[in-house]
Amino acid sequence: MSDTTADISALHDFQVDAHVLLTRAQECLSHLDLIGHDTDACDCLLNTLGTLAERAHLQTQTQIADFCRQLCHVLEPQQCRARLHAALPKLKACLSLLAWQLELIDPHTGQLNLDPQEQLALLEELEQTFRQLHAEPAKATSTPAAPAPALGA
């Protein structure tokens, strides 16, 4: 078997594994959609993205590997993990982008030549979502509550 055939076979195996991992990650998001603060689903999502990053790195799919690592970095802090359910639309968009990128890998060369701007924009939107979520409790405690109306008024 030539090196090219082995490379194409390895690429195919990676793509199959990556689709399985993406499906698992999407199931984690579905679970979080139903049960908002499920730590098992959060752990599963982070572990799945970490595994996908490792496998993409081994297959020299650096754009995919880096995006998965960056997602893990954003999602890892405990305060973010506790609020993953509130960021589901952004997370779904990130997984959709990953799925799209897997489809765009050239099956003969293994190349994925994309501008990383969409990845960076999604990561920024996700980080902004968590910044807003972190600010909400502070706003709630810093603004005085309106006095309750008097009975019979």
Distance between the termini: 87 Å
User: Tell me, what's the shape?
Assistant: elongated
* Rg computed from alpha carbons, rounded to a whole number of angstroms: 20 Å
Poorly predicted runs are 138-149
Output the number of helix runs. Answer: 6
Q: Please, what is the average pLDDT? A: 86
Biggest sheet statistics: none
Can you write the helix and strand succession as a string?
Answer: HHHHHH
Helix percentage? over 70%
Q: Estimate what percentage of residues fall within beta strands.
A: under 5%
The structure class reads mainly alpha
Number of strands: 0
Describe the structure.
- By secondary structure, this protein is mostly helical.
- It is built from six helices and no strands.
- The protein has helices spanning 3-34, 39-58, 62-75, 78-81, 88-103, 117-142.
- Helix 2 (39-58) runs antiparallel to helix 3 and helix 3 runs parallel beside helix 6 (117-142).
- The model is unreliable at 138-149 (pLDDT under 50).
Note the topology.
Blueprint: H1 3-34, H2 39-58, H3 62-75, H4 78-81, H5 88-103, H6 117-142
Helix pairs in contact: 1-2, 1-5, 2-3, 3-6, 5-6
Short descriptors:
single chain; 153 residues; mainly alpha
Question: What's the gist of this structure?
Answer:
With 153 residues, this protein is mainly alpha-helical. The protein contains six helices and no strands.
